[in-house]
Amino acid sequence: MPADMQRYVAFLGSINVGGNRILMADLREALRREDFTDVETVVASGNVLFSHEPRPSEGLADKLAWVVQDRFDIDSLVIVKTRIEVDAAITGNPFHGTGPDHGSDKMVHTIFLDGQPDEDSFHDLLAEHKAKGGERLALGDRMLFLDYVHGAGVSSLTGPFLQRRLEVRGTARNMSSLKRITAKMGELDGKGAA
Length: 194
Fold this sequence. Notes:
This is DUF1697 domain-containing protein. The protein is of the alpha+beta class and about 190 residues long. It folds into two domains: about 5-80, Alpha-Beta Plaits (2-Layer Sandwich); about 90-175, Alpha-Beta Plaits (2-Layer Sandwich). It contains six helices and eight strands. It has helices spanning about 25-30, 55-70, 85-90, 120-130, 160-165, 175-190; strands at about 5-10, 35-40, 45-50, 80, 110-115, 135-140, 145, 170-175. Strands 2-3-1-4 form a four-stranded antiparallel β-sheet, with helices on both faces. Helix 3 (about 85-90) packs antiparallel against helix 6 (about 175-190). The longest helix has 16 residues, at about 55-70.
């Protein structure tokens, strides 16, 4: 990778769910046409690794969201992070690790948010959900950490529910996916650094 390029990952929300279908080959090609290089999709739909001249993550997210809207007519939440930021989303997750107090990598998620939720809204969510399920939640910097314990499929803490309660949009990835993404980012930058 040229020295003037930075490696990033984009997390796209609501891709290949419902009617929002995009072939990953078509997405890669659309991004290449807009000056994204070394474009690769990884783990599952909606995770795109790419190189770009260094820019603020929000600007790159806006550019990616514009491409998805323009080429595929899908309004998708896009969150862009460096490898260092993804590593922090793993190590900063209080439910991730080893031992009896930590969940499995498939159940523990980091939800990347497009804004910082209000503390009062988060505490109201905790109080409301306390009697409804065994999931564990913690708030980070534009992230929500969530241990689904028994699985996301049986939880009432869905994306739309969280968006209504916290008034921010988010897209979730489990620890297994995030670890594979950071490993791939390390392979591609050749140095293991973001």
